[in-house]
Amino acid sequence: MTVNLLELDLEGLSGFCDQLGEKRYRATQLFRWIHQRGASNFEQMSDLARSLREKLKSRAHIAGMRVISQHESVDGTIKWLFDVGGGNAVESVFIPEEDRGTLCVSSQAGCAVGCRFCSTGHQGFSRNLTTGEIVAQLWFAEHFLRQRLATQRRVISNVVMMGMGEPLQNYSALLPALRVMLDDHAYGLSRRRVTVSTSGVVPMIDRLAVDCPVALAVSLHAPNDLLRDSLVPLNRKYPIAELLETCARYLTRAPRDFITLEYCMLQGVNDQPEHARQLIDLVRGNAKSKGLRCKVNLIPFNPFPASGLLRSPAAVVAAFAGILGDAGIVTTVRKTRGDDIDAACGQLAGDIQDRTRVDERMAQQRTFMMQPVQQR
Ligand code: SAH
Ligand code: SF4
Question: What range defines the domain where residue 74 resides?
Answer without folding.
Answer: 67-360
